[in-house]
Amino acid sequence: MKTAIDNPGPALAQLGGGDGRLRWAWHILPWAIALGIFFVADTYISLGTAALEMILFTLSIDLALGYAGIITFGQAAFFGLGAYAAGLFSIHVAPDPLLGLLFGTIIAALFGLVTGMLILHTEGVTLMMLTLAIASMLSAVALQANGLTGGDNGLQGMHISPLFGLFPFDLWGRTGYLYALGVLLLWFIAAWRIVRSPFGRSLDGIRQNPRRMRAIGTPVWWRLVAIYTLSAAMAGTAGALKAQTNQFVGIDSLDLLVSGTALVMLILGGTRRLYGAFVGAAFYVVVQDLAAEFDPFRWMFVIGGLLIVIVLFLDDGLMGLADWTQEHVAGLWRGAFRK
Amino acid sequence: MAYLTILLDGTAYGMVLFIISVGLTVTMGLMRVVNLAHGAFAMIGGYVAATIIEQGGGFLTAIVVASLAVGALGAIAELLLYRPLYRRGELAQALMTFGFTFVVIAALTALFGTNVKTLPAPALLIGLTDLGYTHYPTYRLFLIAVGAVTALCLWLLIDRTLYGARLRAAVDNPHMARAIGMDVNLLFTGTFAVGCALAAFGGIIGAALLPLEPFYALRYLVTFLIVVIVGGVGNFKGSFIAALALGIIDTAGKFLLPGTSAYIIYVLVIVLLLWRPHGLVPARSAP
User: Fold this and answer.
1) Is A134 an 8 Å CB contact of chain B?
2) Helix, strand, or coil here: A48?
3) What are phi and psi of B25, to 5 degrees?
4) Nearest-CB residue to B262 (from A144, A300, A304)
5) I want to staple A83 with a disulfide (CB 3.0 to 4.6 A). Which of A2, A103, A243, B198 is the partner?
6) DSSP state, B129?
7) Contacting residues for A97 by C-beta, under 8 A, at least 6 apart
8) DSSP assignment of B155-177
């Protein structure tokens, strides 16, 4: 029973699902790296913060799209909404970062709940179109609500008070980095628990065969609405984080390109692994930074080309490639010892 | 009489949307590929034509050569990139074509830069025509006429020829079409090429309304998809109605409700798709 659902693969594929002693070692690795970056990144720390925010956003897409199979191209709606909500909260209500983060998250979750209830009856291209239309609508509204959002110029004049009243968001962005890392860790633990719960298992089933799941009595629509709302909340947090660490919200945070690039990161890293978002987003941010040094458009060429190659040849993303390599190397290793 | 001008403007815009999107409805209906790269083909057509005109070629030459070139490119893309996707899920299709769009954007930027590319129309089409009550831009009348002729030709092609019968059969039931011995692969490649050529054609003549710049393929992607999905995927008549409706409503909104015009169209699309998830005219009925 366990094998069929769990699909335990090599350690990388099934972090925490392998043999008992190794599982925690694997979990420590990415977080240790993230913490290590804090100490060595120096001037690149804001790039690191951006990467952490993108990881969280990508993770939110993994929940909806990877696990539940909801084809969404409009995730930027929640990202941008969370960002604007947190920004406006800091300007008009209170400068506290945690309250603002909570507010951005709740607003995005509510919007996810309402739109999810409306659109999750549909499927396939219609669903994709609806997510696109909702995101485009929100972007147009934000552009037109000039007085509230600043329109094309973006939302300015944000002020964020020190975290816990102790750690100010300084120019170097060191507080911002640890803040983003902490929030990411909390959401990651939540996501980890969710996808391994019976609820998460039922999402797996819905993705693979919604009709059969309905037949065995799963409330498919409610489950989809629930995960969509969760995913929206997570995306909202990511947006709010970005707004707070940059103290600015641009109109482009609602852009189709934001949804698109996050999707690309997810596919680069590998879906339904949670850590795929880490690999993909980190890889993407680094490639973008390197390629943009030569020419701002070259990264689009690289990323687009990678996307084509991955879809056509590497179904499981970079982490899938790592698994494959690991399996084959391990096979050679065992073979060598047998002789 | 201002309303008549709005109607004409909207119709001209709708015709351009129809010409560009009709190929997309075929790809998505016939081949069942979620194709997010369609705008890229329209954009390539526009850039090729602009280059030809810059090199001293005529407007008509530019249209013909660019459309044929993009049609050929479409055939190659179908063989190399799209064919492996037919058996894959919607997500893989959407992502691959999205990646292809990225590559095209980067390539065109490298070649032409990020500035808006203008496509000068021939002298004959510049200026105003006297419509009795007002003077109206000749070029927009030209767009309406070209759109109407294209729609008529397509209707004749699809409704009255053997090719059209085959195409309809393959859209309705690809397995049965294959089973009775139709070369569906050839039909796919050919139709995809025609769709891309039409997209290029629309991109060229519509450059005055949808300005050519490297992000064209992403900027208007949602608009093209709206035409296809609201019209009913795989449905030509539906696309025509949806394109005209979108063009007229969008234009009218800009004039009459300047405060809300940008999102009113999306609200309408959402409401419509919730009401009729398969579009105005669902596919697999008569085209």
Assistant:
1) yes
2) helix
3) -65, -30
4) A144
5) A243
6) E
7) A160, A161, A163, A169, A179, A244
8) HHHHHHSHHHHHHHHHHH-HHHH
A interface mutation test: which of B270, B275, B284 has the most A CBs within 10 A?
A: B270
Using the predicted structure, report yes or no on whether residue A84 has a pLDDT greater than 90. yes
Residue B5 lies in a domain: no
What DSSP character marks residue A15?
A: T
* A264 touches B: beta carbon within 8 Å: yes
**Where do we find the tokens 């995005």?**
A108
Residue B164, in any domain of the structure: yes
Half-sphere exposure of B60 (CA within 13 A, CB side): 4
DSSP E strands: which ranges in B79-185? 128-130, 135-137
Beta bridge pairs of residue B137: B128
In sequence order, what are the beta bridge partners of B117?
Answer: B212
Own/partner pairs for A145-152, CB < 8 Å, 24+ apart? Answer: A148/A88, A149/A84, A149/A249, A149/A251, A150/A249, A151/A251, A152/A251
Write down the domain spans for chain A: 14-338
In which domain, by residue range, is B115 found?
Answer: 12-125+135-226
CB nearest B222 (choices: A122, A136, A306): A136
Full-model pTM: 0.86
pLDDT digits (tens, 9 = 90+) for B104-137: 999 998 888 888 888 887 777 787 877 777 788 8
Number of domains observed in the structure of chain B: 1
Mean pLDDT of A2-25: 47
Q: B256 lies in a domain?
A: no
d(CA A86, CA A99) in angstroms, rounded, equals 8
Burial class (CB within 10 angstroms; exposed 0-12, middle 13-18, buried 19+) of B110? middle
